Amino acid sequence: METIYEKTATSPVNIAVIKYWGKRDTTLILPTNPSLSVTLSQDHLHSKTTIRASSDFEKTRLWLNGVEDVDIEKNKRLQNCLRETRRLRKEYEEKLRKDKGPDKVLPLSEYNLHICSENNFPTAAGLASSASGFACLVYTLSQLYELPISTTELSKIARQGSGSACRSLFGGFVAWEMGSKDDGSDSQAVQIAPRDHWPELEALICIVSDAKKGVSSTEGMQTTVNTSTLLQHRIEHVVPVRMKYMIDAIHERDFQKFAEITMQDSNQFHAVCLDTFPPIFYLNDVSRAIIRMITEYNSTNSEKKLKAAYTFDAGPNAVIYTTSENIPELINLIAKYFPGNDDVKNYFFDPFQLFVGKTIGEQPLPLGFNDQIIPVFPKGSVKQILHTKVGDGPKVVNHTIAN
Amino acid sequence: METIYEKTATSPVNIAVIKYWGKRDTTLILPTNPSLSVTLSQDHLHSKTTIRASSDFEKTRLWLNGVEDVDIEKNKRLQNCLRETRRLRKEYEEKLRKDKGPDKVLPLSEYNLHICSENNFPTAAGLASSASGFACLVYTLSQLYELPISTTELSKIARQGSGSACRSLFGGFVAWEMGSKDDGSDSQAVQIAPRDHWPELEALICIVSDAKKGVSSTEGMQTTVNTSTLLQHRIEHVVPVRMKYMIDAIHERDFQKFAEITMQDSNQFHAVCLDTFPPIFYLNDVSRAIIRMITEYNSTNSEKKLKAAYTFDAGPNAVIYTTSENIPELINLIAKYFPGNDDVKNYFFDPFQLFVGKTIGEQPLPLGFNDQIIPVFPKGSVKQILHTKVGDGPKVVNHTIAN
């Protein structure tokens, strides 16, 4: 009888508040600047990967969201992750053979794999699915192989699949230290604070409809490296200062500081995209109206305290970080100016039951909010609002659960 | 019988190819970086100012497009221009009195003025009407007062009305030298090349419809100075290099170089606007689609030569610089993707009779142009296409002409 060894794990999405944009080494995926992200709860968004190993498998195969990728030999980033985890497994097997004797060790490093990976959110939503996906692949492999290494060590392998995947290996607040070595051995993720460090911090994701798919981040960031005359200044003089401030802001749970740097760094990332030649655009008119709305929302606070912070990755979707008490007001604002199509439940699922018996978009606006600041957009301009919180890192799934 | 002294002059619009954004002195209007512009033909766009002086006028009055500005005492920029030209007139009168005797000199510097200023294009179109308007005011005054000063000297006064007005005092290609002195005495416009230096260079202006009026440039640029962490790098390291390249490009009539720097500098200006906090947006989805269209149009050239260059000021309107042979192709492209409302003549007037018997927007696309690069936009997204050329500086109008 054949024996199949199997592991399943899930991994989270992370959303950067100090942005990664530019590689100094495109093969090892070494960045031109450090970055910092918040890991989001897997209750709402996650990748899930099941990996089987068997001596009977004739080759290693990969299914993404149920569709086999028949060309995995050409997928260098995948091959990097498989090769590096296998190498560690092989070393571990050799050590075990010495310690326990040759017969007691399972030669998993020699078996082919069947890998099934899926996201519980549409890939097209532009929610950094490659980060959670590669983090999940590498984490599941490390569990299947029982690798005796730290999460930070593991992050260096995930980094070679997709740069920002290294940050999805931790929950809470995570920095990707850029490192300085040529071999990438010091370019790794570290946890700045765990999930429960700042329980009030929550996130709203606005999935923004976009007619045109922008330039891929892999391609776009290197065009920026090659053509922007502002990027080097950002890398050398702006990001290092912001990293320090942001780490302090998180340690001190200082939302004012956190929000200010988050918005400024999102703006600057899109500024260097625009300074690229030809220019790269990810924000559209809806994204820009969300920025105006949040700017106005923040100005309603009489003490000049920021209440919410927007950030945008390589696409038009907005992620809004805020603290718990502002969530109902913000959801209502978004729903007023960016109403969904008629399928209400698909537009806003209300996981925390904040609007029971109330209609979102029809509650009173915050006091002092200038309601002429932006127009009401056509239905479906924002397709979906997701309400989520800070979450944990990857987890092994012991039993098959419904996705 | 009362005697009225009167002068009428017209002044051109200028469109910068190296952008002015930021003041080091907001009263004297001294910029943080030099800039360079092309003066457009007054056949299509101009300001026209008539100034009368009379000892019988009880006060100085101003009409803008037929409506009196009853609060001109509070208009400091206007007062700066009136005061400085009057001061020069007074000096001149004193000199004349010495040379010719006191009775031969008209004391115009003591007379009140009636000033009528109008644009032959809508102010709301966002075509830098304050630049042509202040240039026209100062030029007309200099003619009325018969001031014995150079155009560059005069540009320092226009600069105190509206920074970029100093560049509208010359035709052709004009640099605004930023200067370094605190009193602004070396912050002035100089002509790089006259109108007929580069006869093939032409311009298309796309008037883009915009729901929301952006932040005024006066306010916006100082917010950028105060909050952008990229602007200083642009000022110190990027613009000086670009100024040299651009002056060379113009002298050599090198469209490749001219186009590249024009587009890059427009992009960077909008990048530092986006790096402002809160961010400033002038480009909208239509502006961005025009950029994509021009980028694709340039890529159709097999020799990788640039054929057209976009530039955007503090608004969504595109100005496209190109050489004569590409004009019909470009007008056709714009009309295909950004069709006008049904009033065809108002959409495109065809001053040079390039489309007699042909329908714009329905001619074949350039060979190799990917027609899926942008969608066809709703009618009226571009309200008007203006086709114009490089033009002369301000001119005195001897007879009253229909505007």
What does this structure look like?
- The structure is a homodimer of 403-residue chains.
- Chain A has helices spanning 76-100, 129-144, 151-159, 217-227, 231-251, 255-274, 285-299, 327-337, 344-347, and strands at 5-12, 14-18, 23-25, 30-31, 35-39, 46-54, 61-64, 67-69, 112-119, 173-177, 188-193, 201-208, 308-311, 318-323, 382-389, 395-396.
- By secondary structure, the first copy, chain A, is of the alpha+beta class.
- The first copy, chain A, has 2 domains: 5-197, Ribosomal Protein S5, domain 2, CATH 3.30.230.10; 201-389, 2-Layer Sandwich (Alpha-Beta Plaits), CATH 3.30.70.890.
- In chain A, the strands form 4 sheets. Chain A has a 6-stranded mixed β-sheet. In chain A, strands 2-5-10-11 form a 4-stranded antiparallel β-sheet. Chain A has a 4-stranded antiparallel β-sheet with strand order 13-14-12-15.
- Chain A is globular, with a radius of gyration of 22 Å.
- The mean pLDDT of chain A is 94.
- Chain A binds chain B through residues 211-212, 229-230, 233-234, 237-238, 260, 263-264, 267-268, 270-272, 274-279, 281, 284-285, 288, 291, 295, 374-375, and chain B through 211-212, 229-230, 233-234, 237-238, 260, 263-264, 267-268, 270-272, 274-279, 281, 284-285, 288, 291, 295, 374-375.
